[in-house]
Fold:
Amino acid sequence: MSEINFQDEFRGADAGVARQLLNLRQTPSAALQCRVQAIPQQSAHRERFVPRLAWAAVGLILVALAFASPAVRAALSKVEEVVGRIHLTVTDSVPGAPREFTFTETEWMSLGEALAAVPFDFAMPTYVPDGFTTSGQAKVWTSYDGKEIVIIEWRDAKGHFFALDAREYYEGAHFTVGPDSSKTILINGQEAIVVSGGWNASCDTWNDQAGTTALIWEANGVLYKLMTFRNAVSLTELIAVAESVH
Structure:
């Protein structure tokens, strides 16, 4: 395999670091990750290089949407939107927000144990795309404000997966998303939000190419969020899953 000339895109120490990342499959520094994300992918040479480096850096993409605290939201240059009963902050930058979140995670438990561990009743979907199954287990996370979040996953034979999280609805429930990343649809006749992309935890910027789609809606006092990663499930299928939650 011919050697890649990194000098076309990096200079000095950065070129050496990029070569080491490809050889060792290590996670790049935050500064280098931001530089890579900003590189225009115009030539065939760059198209070969960027996916390899992105593979090494995949752990840096914050696939979960930022669930911002009031203090963080107050500091943002933002636009506030309300869709149905869902509150959004739309901003092009979240200074330090992803790193300020604190979540307390529990071990995997049965769905019955998860129901008993949270102060609300959540519903499971009755429709699941072909090939996807769940272990029948769930995790419960406690967020910065003491609110419990139930998370359930479905996987297929290739390891692709999508996830559902449920939390009790309250007026302070708030999601922070990037500009032009969301649109409004209807789920069982009620307004819901589709969000494309995710926050890059190193650069605090929105990545439209993260391969993440989230569907957020409220039903019976519960705020649900379905997420698919690397487009494992189409939006049509994701909507069908959401509409089967009663």
